Amino acid sequence: MNSQFVRIESITIENFKNVRKGVLDFENRRKKYRTSIVGLYGQNGSGKTALIDAIQLLKYSLCGKSAPNKYADYINVEKDFATLKFQFKMQKAEETYDIWYQFSIKKVLDYSDMEGDALVESETRYKIQIFDEVLSFTYLSDKEKIRKSALIDTRTAGVFVPKSKYNELLKNIDEDVMELLLTKRLAQEQSRSFIFSREMMNRFRKSCEIEIYLNILNGLSTFGNRELFIIDTQHEGLINMNALPLAFKYKEKNSEAVGNLLLPLNKPASIPEKAIELVKNIIDNMNIVLQQLVPGLTIGVVDLGPEVSKEGKIGRLIQLMSLKNEKAIPFQYESEGIKKIVSILQLLTVVYNNPSITVAIDELDSGIFEYLLGELLNIISEKGKGQLIFTSHNLRPLETIDKGFIAFTTTNPDNRYIRMTNVKVNNNLRDFYYRDIVLGEQSEPVYSPTNNYEIALAFREAGEAFGS
């Protein structure tokens, strides 16, 4: 086991998309497992994707990167700002940290593309500002215990409070406060986190001499940059457009590679020359599992030779091939389901083996045979080590994995996420869920009923409007 790992313990979402309030605890309270799995189920438009989007926004923050402008439209239309709160557990050797990180986002005008002082109404653009960041923690080791306290609280007109932590974190920094305030303002204008911005992280590392504080900051930064992966619906769209988005974390001896590759499937893909061996190693690694999931199928990489780009850089042209029954065909002719499996298989392998990895996947079931989906999740839940968060419409996993791994959305925007109660050991959770849809036995309704007669009437009226 790695000497350090970070895991998400809970998420609280407020006024984000169609979630006015939602709290989701990731702990399986029924039974202890090494792995952490949360499968979120519910009807369309009930807040499943909002959970994945919140985790994606967390990644942007922890990486100190600018969040895309699209998040300006994710704030609930009835509110001025949204707030996301995350609780983490970090284990480092014999030290245990409970860490809380929260921030708010608000919608502001984006003046970056304005010409002069003119702003054409039809071209009005918005972006988000990340503000009111708070980072708190508790610490426990065999030598010391620290109760919950704020490490950095930016909810102040100054740089941040508490003053005592400010002095300890920036002890040797000889800078004007105005320069730090400018850094804070610049991060907000660029839709970045102030705490985890490159500028502040460099200052903390240069100045702070307290190891506990640096462990927290570096631990979350490493988690965001190298250990947290999000597969959203855009991933699925790229596959539909005949491209293979390949997210990976690959470690060999003393080297490690983390990143994303987008390989076109309808033509040879051009990749940097230094990446050719990495791609081959990743594919070879995936093939070990792939041929067990789809008997007899492996993926091959054909090296078509060097290529010089317009910028004068040397790359390599490669073609992905599907190898089955001793016959090779271009991988583009495989089914969408096979492409989906291959695109996420390396990350699932890492989740199975590495406790420090968190992978969040929206619509995991899309394109994957339901029986195989259930078996995959059962294997990972029983033997895995990392953290897997997913949304799904396919109910097969409700029959194959522990009931404590499953959560549901509700129809109440003020209490979006719940765990089923009164579920007996011998209950089939799939049948239990169906029964609750009909009878509504939980504290919150999980489904807004539809009327078959009204739906049929609506179809008929719509047809009449088109002269059918």
UniProtKB/TrEMBL annotation:
Keyword annotations from UniProtKB, A to Z: ATP-binding, Nucleotide-binding
All residue ranges annotated as the Endonuclease GajA/Old nuclease/RecF-like AAA domain in the record: 8-394
Ranges that cross the membrane: none
GO molecular function, one term: ATP binding
PANTHER family reported for this sequence: ATPASE AAA-TYPE CORE DOMAIN-CONTAINING PROTEIN, ATPASE-LIKE PROTEIN
Protein name: ATP-binding protein
